[in-house]
Specification:
339 residues, alpha/beta, Rossmann fold, seven-stranded parallel β-sheet, 11 helices, 7 strands, globular, oxidoreductase, Dehydrogenase/reductase SDR family member 7, SDR_fam, oxidoreductase activity
Length: 339
Amino acid sequence: MSWELLLWLLALCALLALVVQLLRFLRADGDLTLLWAEWQGRRPEWELTDMVVWVTGASSGIGEELVYQLSKLGVSLVLSARRVQELERVKRRCLENGNLKDKDILVLPLDLTDRSSHEAATKMVLQEFGKIDILVNNAGRSQRSLFVETSLDVFKELIELNYLGTLSLTMCVLPHMIERKQGKIVTVNSLLGIVSVPLSSGYCASKHALRGFFNCLRTELATYPGIVVSNICPGPVQSNIVKNALSEEVTKSVGIDVAQYHKMATSRCVRLMLISMANDLKEVWIADHPFLLIAYLWQYMPTWAWWLTNILGKKRIENFKKGLDADASYFKTWKTKHD
């Protein structure tokens, strides 16, 4: 075989590999590292069994679905949120459909903005189960309003809840993990911790702050390789996050049901989260296209991303003012691969 033929074959193989990666990306609903872990990595069913997992924001949305899937893996669960009745409902369903007994689930009401209660809550979990293997910082709230029309109290609330409340609870749990030299701190961030869009200035600020903080914390814990710090960045997921989002005043929420057809199924998002946790991935992006594509543009082609965001942002504001869903009415519906 001549060298010229060999080089042509190598070039053809490289082109074929590029085409395969492009096809994978077009079908992707997560970053390629995450999808590789789903294909070739460790299974949650193997890695997470017998762990104690504390989930905040467990009464609805991603947090609720997460505890349902965890309940089938043989873990011990701590369910936290402000609404006790909703937590009890979630617990009953875990017992009905999961592999847990009553003693395996602790309902622990918690308000992240009441930072003085976090130390006592942590002690209660340790008294009940003796350890905390995984802390899932999931609680938070979104926003839908223009900056110039929004009270400063809204921004204070978003920082108190999404950012400072999460830091406070992490600060209480981390010494226990350092003492054991192991643990996982998993924070449900958002693609809006990477991307910035209109109508969510306070929410974006809180999520960018979270991403920056936990990236710094990860480096500070480099001498503790058994402690894993993970940022989970989902795009739009089927939930009531927009309905419950803050509006112009801190006492006012959006309060209306919005379209969900363009959003990822919550069960699929949570499955990818579990894969991330099982494989100790530092940061993952979970979203269908075109949201995933936009995240990649912001990461690798920021000039193009700004140009595209300015175009789509104007339409997003127009939709919001007309009472339409900010995203669904102008993003083309991509065929959902996972129900």
